[in-house]
Write a structure and sequence with these properties.
By secondary structure, the chain is α+β, with helices and mostly antiparallel strands. The protein is 48% helix and 21% strand. It has 10 helices and 11 strands. The strands form 2 sheets. An 8-stranded mixed β-sheet has the order 2-3-1-5-4-9-10-11. A 3-stranded antiparallel β-sheet has the order 6-7-8. Strand 10 and strand 11 form a beta hairpin. Helix 1 runs antiparallel to helix 3, helix 3 packs antiparallel against helix 4 and helix 4 crosses helix 10. The two termini are 39 Å apart.
């Protein structure tokens, strides 16, 4: 057992050492020192937008530095435990070392992910949406299952989220859902999920319990900073509709027209929110989403497609899936872009999707070199 633990530790330590140059720890520490000094300047809050941006970046840098420090401390602790095992061969030391190695591996994997995120919007919050595709009621139920899966992932990774709008299915599930997600590198992580997600299972909505294939599409756009969304949109270009919020939300939400839908008439772009009891707050949230979407379109206008920063407009059906989730006749989740797969279907549905995210980021990084 000691040999296995020692070998695992050496492998992880080697991977950590190879990763360290790309972490630029000294440069990171110096940047933190400079920004902390800047915050102490009397003029720091004269430009509130710039100040908020610096504070956000500082928090992200500190989080990254803390992760590196934590790994180094963990590495020393594991080394000490391995020395104790040699001296005592105590079973409790072996169990403790095994647990620490698993934590070390997870933390190292998360840290590696940060080094793979270098896009211009990777560190921004994002607007995350899921839309049911081909498959009828099963597709709407699948959209609901995906919503639960991603919300569990948000919880596990410390990302905060607000369900801005959801449209219930005809019989079950959801036709669509829009979620605002906030936290370190929210867009960077979640952009890997853009595309069609395919479900294969014995349908609970089919009287003959036949195998059914259904689809749902995930789209993610960065929630751009205020400075990037100062669009001057003429009032005549907007159609603002209010309606009663659907689903759970309490007596006030369901009986008053607090939900807001804003349509940009020239482009047909739509944003809506029903997360707040206040119509004014929902209008503000919907307008922020609309501006982010329109800004994204403007910035991508010189490109051939919008696919680089947002989901493709492919049909949400067979032939376009990025990942398959098979319940029957066997259990398997497979990403068709990277060939990463696992038979631990329930773990994935409970939010354990980070291995798929890391595999895609690695694949994307390798394809650029």
């Amino acid at each position: 057992m000691f040999q296995e633990l020692n070998q695992s530790f050496n492998t992880l330590s080697k991977a950590f050492k190879e990763l360290e140059p790309s972490l630029a720890y000294d440069e990171l520490s110096e940047t933190i020192r400079q920004q902390e000094a800047e915050i102490e300047e009397p003029s720091f809050w004269e430009n509130n937008t710039k100040a908020q941006s610096i504070l956000k970046e500082l928090n992200q840098l500190k989080s990254k530095k803390d992760s590196i420090d934590s790994l180094r401390t963990l590495q020393d602790d594991i080394s000490t435990y391995l020395e104790l095992i040699i001296e005592t061969n105590d079973r409790s030391d072996i169990d403790a070392t095994s647990k620490l190695l698993k934590i070390f591996e997870t933390k190292l994997s998360n840290l590696e992910t940060y080094t793979l995120l270098s896009g211009p919007y990777d560190n921004e919050d994002c607007i995350f949406s899921i839309t049911a595709g081909a498959g009828g009621t099963d597709a709407q139920d699948w959209t609901d299952i995906l919503c639960r899966m991603f919300c569990r992932y948000f919880d596990q990774t410390g990302l905060s989220y607000t369900i801005e709008e959801s449209s219930p299915g005809d019989e079950a599930g959801l036709k669509s859902v829009t979620i605002t997600v906030k936290g370190h590198y929210a867009y960077g992580f979640l952009k890997t999920e853009i595309g069609v997600h395919r479900l294969v299972r014995l349908s609970p909505f089919n009287a003959n319990n036949k195998r059914q294939t259904s689809f749902a599409a995930v789209d993610v756009i960065p929630s751009l900073p205020e400075a990037d969304t100062q669009l001057d949109i003429p009032a005549d270009d907007l159609r603002i509709d209010t309606y009663r919020a659907s689903g759970a939300g309490g007596q006030h939400v369901n009986k008053t027209s607090s939900a807001v839908r804003i349509t940009h008439i020239p482009t047909g772009t739509v944003a809506q929110s029903q997360s707040s009891r206040s119509q004014g707050a929902n209008k503000e949230a919907a307008m922020a989403m609309l501006k982010s979407r329109l800004t994204q379109q403007l910035q991508a206008a010189h490109k051939e497609t919008l696919d680089e920063l947002s989901g493709a407009s492919n049909e949400i059906a067979w032939g376009h899936q990025i990942r398959s989730y098979v319940f029957h006749p066997y259990q398997l989740v497979k990403d068709h872009r990277t060939d990463h797969e696992t038979s631990q279907l329930q773990h994935v549905l409970d939010g354990d999707i980070h291995p798929f995210i890391l595999a895609f980021l690695r694949h994307e990084s390798e394809s650029k070199h």
